[in-house]
Amino acid sequence: MPKVAVLPGDGIGPEIVAEAVRVLRVVAPDIELTEALVGGAAYDATGHPLPPETLELCKASDAVLLGAVGGPKWDVIPDPNLRPERGALLPLRKHLGLYANLRPAICYPALAAASSLKPELLEGGLDVLVVRELTGGMYFGLPKENDGNRAVDTCVYTKDEIVRIAHVGFQAAQKRGKKLCSVDKQNVLMTSVLWRATVEEVAKEYPDVQLSHLLVDNAAMQLVRWPKQFDVIVTENLFGDILSDQAAMLTGSLGMLPSASLGTGTFGLYEPCHGSAPDIAGKGIANPLATILSVAMLLRYSFGRETEAKRIETAVEAVLGAGLRTPDIAQSGEATVGTIAMADAVLAQL
Ligand SMILES: NC(=O)c1ccc[n+]([C@@H]2O[C@H](COP(=O)([O-])OP(=O)(O)OC[C@H]3O[C@@H](n4cnc5c(N)ncnc54)[C@H](O)[C@@H]3O)[C@@H](O)[C@H]2O)c1
Ligand SMILES: CC(C)[C@H](C(=O)O)[C@@H](O)C(=O)O
Ligand SMILES: [Mg+2]
Fold this sequence. Notes:
Elements: E1 3-9, H1 13-27, E2 32-35, H2 40-46, H3 52-59, E3 63-68, H4 72-75, H5 84-95, E4 100-107, E5 126-133, E6 141-146, E7 151-154, H6 159-175, E8 179-184, H7 190-203, E9 210-215, H8 216-225, E10 232-235, H9 237-251, E11 260-262, E12 268-270, H10 289-303, H11 306-321, H12 339-349
Helix pairs in contact: 1-10, 1-12, 6-7, 8-9, 10-11, 11-12
């Protein structure tokens, strides 16, 4: 029986995951779901944000569905390595070998008004895929220290790490618009010099893909100026984190952006790109669509179940077309629905 580990986490995590689970149960009732603690919730219950049982459950599953971790309550844990982000999320990604993070920024036509872009920049829709390297760079490089007077983070990339994520970027581009933009900071960073040279080398294997390079500051600007110039963007861990939140606002809301974190096999971790949203947690108004769309990615990438994945995406599009809006995607004066009602509407479509 296919198995998925469900890790709701903190803040709005449990609210949105509960709705995504309802969708998953309807679309793929044969998948066995097992819930476990992660993040601040796990720290409170066990003293560690990633209890060994949770990691074991993930390793024994075919995929993981995660909500979000962290929040002000746990930002003050004295040992930074026991905070939810550093103590749970990053080790999960690293231990599970999930180096390729796919973050599709799609602006559904019905949400054009919610996008931060002028309508003329959205004509014909928007579909940009950010491929973010997820287990290297500044997040993991050592030394990493802070003695109260001087703090150090280290950015490290090996050629192998760049080669494998470059292949993911090129192969994604081959299946889409055949354009890959690699984003770096090669005018300053040595890791970026290696990044650019390596991507150029890998490009020789993909003559059908048009490769371009942008420095990250320019890329951030271009993403807002004229996002349709992009098809697939491949970039390192920290730049990908920032650019994907920025790309989210082109789609209407951070609450719309799903993600898949993949390694070499079919195992994957699926989560919305957003965090635990402490400012709206407990209010029942979080947008569940990023997590529901992450379930579609889970079915597609870990189980090869394209039909079910498409069913979910079509249902989401229909619900948006019918005018349902959580507050984050509503225009002023527009009626809004809460988290559960939005998911109810998706289920009704299904
Ligand atoms: N993958 C993760 O678990 C993850 C990702 C990002 C941030 N975080 C953590 O989450 C905490 C809060 O971080 P933050 O506030 O900087 O970022 P955030 O992504 O949680 O929230 C940013 C803004 O977007 C809004 N938002 C986010 N998701 C939404 C949704 N589904 N529906 C409606 N609005 C939504 C929030 O209300 C907030 O105003 C921090 O502890 C951070 O480390 C975790
Ligand atoms: C919470 C944080 C560690 C995480 C990251 O930076 O990767 C988040 O911002 C994300 O985008 O998944
Ligand atoms: Mg982020």
